[in-house]
Amino acid sequence: MVLMYSLLDYNQYFTINSYSGQIDSIQSIDREQIPFLLLHIIASDQGQQLQLQSICMTLHITIVDINDNIPQFSSTNYTYYLFSDLPRDTIFGQVYAFDLDSADNLIYSIDPNPYVKINRYTGHLRLKSNLYHMIDQNINITVKVFDGLHINYTWIYIYIIRFIEIQEPILLREPAYDIIINQSSSIGTIVTNVYHHLQILESSIDFIDIIHEENPMPFSIDQQGIIL
Hints:
Layout: E1 3-7, E2 14-16, E3 23-25, E4 36-45, E5 53-62, E6 72-73, E7 77-83, E8 91-94, E9 97-98, E10 107-110, E11 116-118, E12 124-127, E13 138-146, E14 151-161, E15 192-193, H1 194-198, E16 226-227
Parallel strand pairs: 7-14
Antiparallel strand pairs: 1-4, 2-3, 4-5, 6-9, 8-12, 10-13, 11-12, 13-14, 15-16
């Protein structure tokens, strides 16, 4: 009995010795495209029988990953606007990188600086000190990610802004007053201007609104104090 071996598929990656059955790789396989494959091998009886007999065996092949990809950040840069009153050790953001090589463990680091530190495993950003003396200033920091072989970079831009305290509600001199309108007034008719009537500077008001019950309200007010 003489056995002959052949491959049913993946001939572009493997060859098999027809007599010994030895399988050799003839081309590299990209794990990101083919993480595993099923290689089918045919063994045929080439004896003098009138009818050939063949069997098929399946070889399960797992492609082992190699570190051949550079880690990539989710953004080319990260911008943050931070209030100057944030306390030390506040977590204010996170940088994130991904790697197509499944087995790689990414390590984050940043340039030495007195303001920000980074979690080397998660990329979370944390304040090292208070920023009250940095009002209206910028902080630019370079972030590095390392996968054991390759390095990539991104940049953090931090803008320190002044914390604005919430103002107390303005107490009106007139808690209520009457306005008479004509029932035939068309939609969009100006009823009154609250700022003018109460002699309030528009620049001193952050937000104004009409407070009413759940019943439909036929009036609206814009941020210039005009009731329609």
